[in-house]
Amino acid sequence: SFGRDACSEMSIDGLCQCAPIMSEYEIICPANAENPTFRLTIQPKDYVQIMCNLTDTTDYQQLPKKLRIGEVDRVQMRRCMLPGHTPIASILDYLGIVSPTTLIFESDNLGMNITRQHLDRLHGLKRFRFTTRRLTHIPANLLTDMRNLSHLELRANIEEMPSHLFDDLENLESIEFGSNKLRQMPRGIFGKMPKLKQLNLWSNQLHNLTKHDFEGATSVLGIDIHDNGIEQLPHDVFAHLTNVTDINLSANLFRSLPQGLFDHNKHLNEVRLMNNRVPLATLPSRLFANQPELQILRLRAELQSLPGDLFEHSTQITNISLGDNLLKTLPATLLEHQVNLLSLDLSNNRLTHLPDSLFAHTTNLTDLRLEDNLLTGISGDIFSNLGNLVTLVMSRNRLRTIDSRAFVSTNGLRHLHLDHNDIDLQQPLLDIMLQTQINSPFGYMHGLLTLNLRNNSIIFVYNDWKNTMLQLRELDLSYNNISSLGYEDLAFLSQNRLHVNMTHNKIRRIALPEDVHLGEGYNNNLVHVDLNDNPLVCDCTILWFIQLVRGVHKPQYSRQFKLRTDRLVCSQPNVLEGTPVRQIEPQTLICPLDFSDDPRERKCPRGCNCHVRTYDKALVINCHSGNLTHVPRLPNLHKNMQLMELHLENNTLLRLPSANTPGYESVTSLHLAGNNLTSIDVDQLPTNLTHLDISWNHLQMLNATVLGFLNRTMKWRSVKLSGNPWMCDCTAKPLLLFTQDNFERIGDRNEMMCVNAEMPTRMVELSTNDICPAEKGV
């Protein structure tokens, strides 16, 4: 066979160019031509493709000489002219092609009509495909010498088929005459082909078929007459096709079909009536009745109704497709005899309700598609006999209610799709607390793998989804109305790797505990929960969620689930709006202390804002710029709180209350910048004070008792003293020593100024001798 050596020799003589490409060889003649006359692609022992660019038949002289390609199975000639009055076989001989069994000739540039002579010496062919748009008639003896042919395909705009065209083709098994312009079939043309099994006559103009068109075709198993513009058929048109198993009637113009159309075809296995070009309102009674071998029906023709006996006694049907019609309901008896039905497609109709007994006998049904209809509810009985159902799709209906018993019997269900409906699953007679404790209607399906509830009105995560659906792998709750989540809503016990989609809900709060003890024997699979695209309120209630997301807190329960939050941002408060949760600092998470406008109920002083900060268990009271002349009455520190932070900046305070004042005694962080304080005594400083800002007041000195208190209680950079008119004389010596000994505690030490000098002087630049010189002689 042709190989690398032959390819190299061809390139040497210079007439043609040969190059190996992967396992193939490509030959171009003439060599280096931009638009070569011939391009040959050779896969040794398999196929040869000859691509032509001819002006007339003399160009065949440019084919490579002395080529010996050897045995191949398939030869394809594309865009080539017929070789004058010589056989096509002469070209194959010239190229050294031996014993091909398949010839494909595709060209719209034949140069002349094809004749019997062109097919001379091709008697070994088993498959012949001839495609052109330039041929309307073929000679009656065209195929006389091709007695071994088993598969014939002619697509050539042929208008008339010679009556004796197939007389010598006793081995023919398949005829493909699709995409021609045939108007009728000569009577008896198929009578001399005892092995004929497949007859494809699609896309012709066979408007007026009768039973005589198929005389002698008793061996045919499959017939395809789709897209012929047929408006009606005689009731006995298929009478001679007694062994036919598959019939394709699609894409025609049927406005009705005759009763008894398939009465003579008791071996039918599949019938297709798809994409009818005009509305076909209904089908005749018993059209597919009493068919002992019928298994598959595909019917899409804008059907508006069906007779109840359409499939009567056809017990072997396994697949029925009625999708994309205009059906509003179905007869209760439609599927009465379909005990072996496995798949039923009723999608994209206008179904508003279905009889409860419709599926009473289809106990083997495994796949049911009801999506894109107008169904509003699921009754407790309609699926009661579908114990073998595996997949149920009811997406894009108008479902609102599901009976609590609807899925009691569907123990085999694995995939349930109820997305794009208006399901809320609520029980109208139960209060909201009880709603969260009950199971959903799906709790009986312990083997469920997929539960798709996307785009509904669900507001809870139900217990059965977490605790009894142990095989669950996909739970889609996106685009629902869930507003809050707790730890219990994420504690799924699925034994599979579960993915839960909660994106695009209304989740404002995610309250997780600091930790949960899981027990020694805990061995759960990691649950992946997508929480993105929710309007999260970033306040104190989500502290442990934020810490978990940031990776700084890893409680035991973090082994239960992995949260996806890469697109989750804060919607409130305003200062955090748009901030990704992964970037939230925990100390910014606060909650209002109370919301009441009634002074008798308010705990927060009027004119102030009070917040709880769970990060450090602090109560933050902000009375900033409130025009206050005294410290207001403060709430007591709750037992769960450890710190009280009081902000009184930019008011007009003259003095502080006693440290023992109720509420004030609990202050641990006191912010007094920008007031009118002239003095502070130690009995005005709360015992547990750790932060003090008294900058920008009118203080001239701090006594030793106060400084001793600050020395004992203040933390790193926890004191601010700048902006006061400090008197730097001998009385200020304790203050200066305090600033020198505690420079790490004073956050603004470098800004403290002495004002009693001729020029304001930074206190940090002074020594004790500068402010209080030692007496001479001492």
From TrEMBL:
Source species, domain of life: Eukaryota
Keywords annotated in UniProt: Leucine-rich repeat, Repeat, Signal
Listed GO CC annotations: cell periphery
Domain annotation LRRNT: ranges: 603-640
Residue ranges of every copy of the LRRCT domain listed in the record: 534-592, 724-773
Keyword Signal: yes
PROSITE patterns, sorted: LRR
Record's keyword annotation contains Signal: yes
Family matches, as InterPro entries: Cys-rich_flank_reg_C, Leu-rich_rpt, Leu-rich_rpt_typical-subtyp, LRR_dom_sf, LRR_TM_domain-containing, LRRNT
Name used for this protein in its record: RT11167p
Species per Swiss-Prot/TrEMBL record: Drosophila melanogaster (Fruit fly)
Gene: Tl-RB
